[in-house]
Design goal:
Largest sheet: none
Structural class: mainly alpha
Strand content: under 5%
Number of domains: 1
Number of helices: 11
Order of helices and strands: HHHHHHHHHHH
Helix content: over 70%
Number of strands: 0
Shape: globular
Distance between the termini: 40 Å
Low-confidence stretches: none
C-alpha cells in the first residue's frame, strides 16, 4: 500500500509546474501566512485542552502541562513517520503522572473518539454543499469513522463521562473550525479563493490521508490529497499544490518551533 502511494505521489510530482508553485509561494501574502501560523497554533492549544479533560481525573496533571505535551507531540508528528508524537506524549504523561501507560492510552482514545465524532458532524454538515461527486464518499467516510470510534471504545473498554464528552465534543468542533480557517487563510495567501465548503473537504481529505502517515510529516500525501479535493472546484493542480506546500510548511515550522520550546520544559 505504501509503495503504491509513493508511486502515485511520484507521478503527481511530474505533472506539477514547480516554477509556478515556487512563484506563488514567493509572492504569498505575509500577513496571511502569519495568520495561518497563529490559527494553526491555536488549534493545537485547543486539542491540548480537550485531552486534559480526559486526563485530569486519572493523572492530576494541570491544563498547562498537558497543553505543552500536546504541543510537543504535534511537533514530533510534524517531522516523523506514523504518529510518533502521540506515543511520545503518552509516554511522558505516564512517566510524569506515575500512572500506567494503559490509563493514558484510554484517555487518548476518548480524546480521539470525540474528535472523530466532531469530524463526522463536519462531514455530514458539508454533505449538501458539496459537488455530487463527493456525496457517496462523505457517506462512506462518515459511517466508517463512526464504526472506528465505536471500535476504539470497545477495544479500550473506555467509558465516556457525559460532561467531559460534551465539553470535548464542543472543543473538537472549534478545533476543526480553526483548522478549516487555517487552510482557508493559507490558500488565500497564494491567491486560491474557493467556497469554505471546498476548504473543509480539503481538510477532511488531508486528515483521512494522514490516518496512516507513510512519509515523514506526511509530506507528499498532504499535497496530493489537497489537490484532489480542490480539483472538482476548478482549482488547477499548480495552485492547489502551492497552497498545500505553504500550509504544510507553516504547520511544520510552527509545530517544530513550538514543540522545541515545549521540549525544554521536559528535558530533565
Amino acid at each position: 500500500m505504501m509503495t503504491v502511494l509513493l508511486v502515485i505521489i511520484a507521478g503527481a510530482v511530474r505533472v506539477v509546474d514547480w516554477r509556478a508553485v515556487a512563484h506563488s509561494i514567493a509572492s504569498a501574502s505575509v500577513p496571511l501566512v502569519i495568520a495561518t501560523a497563529v490559527i494553526t497554533f491555536l488549534s493545537t492549544v485547543i486539542k491540548g485542552i480537550r485531552w486534559w479533560l480526559f486526563l485530569r481525573r486519572v493523572t492530576g496533571l494541570g491544563i498547562g502541562h498537558v497543553v505543552r505535551l500536546t504541543i510537543l507531540g504535534t511537533g514530533v508528528n510534524s517531522v516523523l513517520f506514523a504518529n510518533a508524537g502521540d506515543m511520545v506524549r503518552v509516554g511522558l504523561v505516564a512517566r510524569e503522572a506515575r500512572v500506567p501507560v494503559g490509563t493514558v492510552v484510554r484517555a487518548l482514545a476518548l480524546d480521539k473518539v470525540v474528535e472523530v465524532l466532531a469530524f463526522v458532524t463536519m462531514l455530514v454538515a458539508l454533505g449538501t454543499r458539496l459537488p455530487v461527486v463527493f456525496h457517496r464518499n462523505v457517506e462512506i467516510a462518515a459511517i466508517g469513522l463512526v464504526m472506528a470510534a465505536l471500535g476504539v471504545l470497545f477495544a479500550t473498554r473506555a467509558e465516556l463521562r457525559r460532561r467531559e464528552t460534551a465539553a470535548g465534543y464542543a472543543l473538537s468542533l472549534i478545533s476543526w473550525a480553526t483548522q478549516v480557517a487555517a487552510y482557508a487563510t493559507g490558500a488565500m495567501a497564494v491567491g486560491v479563493a474557493v467556497p469554505i465548503a471546498a476548504i473543509a473537504i480539503a481538510v477532511a481529505s488531508v486528515n483521512l490521508g494522514g490516518l496512516v502517515r507513510s512519509t515523514p510529516g506526511n509530506v507528499g500525501v498532504f499535497q496530493l490529497m489537497f489537490a484532489l479535493a480542490l480539483a472538482p472546484f476548478g482549482v488547477a493542480n499548480g495552485q492547489a499544490v502551492a497552497a498545500a506546500v505553504l500550509i504544510q510548511a507553516v504547520q511544520i515550522l510552527s509545530a517544530s518551533i513550538a514543540g522545541g520550546i515545549a521540549a525544554t520544559r521536559f528535558s530533565h
